[in-house]
Amino acid sequence: MFNIKFVGADGTPHTGGVRLIFNNDTLFPKTDAKGTYHDWMAEGKYKIVAFVPYWHEVITDSIVFSKDKIITIRMKFEAKELRHH
User: Fold this and answer.
1) 80, 54 in Cβ contact below 8 A?
2) Tens of pLDDT along 16-69?
3) Helices (H), strands (E): how many in the chain?
4) What is d(CA 80, CA 68) in angstroms, rounded to the nearest whole number?
5) Which of 8, 46, 51, 58 sits most deeply, having the most CB atoms within 10 A of its CB?
6) Contacts of 85 (CB under 8 A, 6+ apart)
7) How far apart (Å, rounded) are the C-alpha atoms in residues 19 and 16?
8) Whole-number Å distance between alpha carbons of 73 and 2
9) 85 pLDDT above the threshold of 70
10) In angstroms, rounded to a whole number, what is the distance separating the alpha carbons of residues 75 and 66?
C-alpha cells in the first residue's frame, strides 16, 4: 500500500492532470480533494517519475515496496519558466 500526496509550488494540493511512471509502467492517478492518491504495488523496487504539464517532473530514488509496509510520498511540483522567443 502507498499514498502519494501531490502539492503545487505554493504548498496547496494538486488534484489533477498527473501522469505517473513506476519503472516502465505509466498510469494516470485519480486524486482526492487533498491531492492524495492511494493504491498498492507488487513488492519490489520502484523508481517513480511524476509529470504535470508546465511543471518540472519529480523523480524519486528507488523506493522499496513491501506487503507489510505503507509508503507515504510527498511530491511537490515547481513551475517551469516560460520563455518567449
Assistant:
1) yes
2) 899 999 999 999 999 999 999 999 999 999 999 999 988 899 999 999 999 899
3) 0, 9
4) 38
5) 58
6) none
7) 9
8) 8
9) no
10) 20
Buried b / exposed e along 58-84 (16+ C-beta atoms within 10 A): beeeeeebeeeeebeeebbbeeeeeee
Based on the number of CB atoms within 10 Å of its own CB, is 15 exposed (0-12), middle (13-18) or buried (19 or more)?
A: middle
* Cell numbers that stand for 33 in this block: 480533494
With H, G, I as helix, E, B as strand and everything else as coil, classify residue 46.
strand
Residue type, 5: K
Report how far residue 62's alpha carbon sits from residue 46's, in angstroms, rounded to the nearest whole number.
5
For 16, the grid coordinates are 489533477
Q: Which amino acid is at 7?
A: V
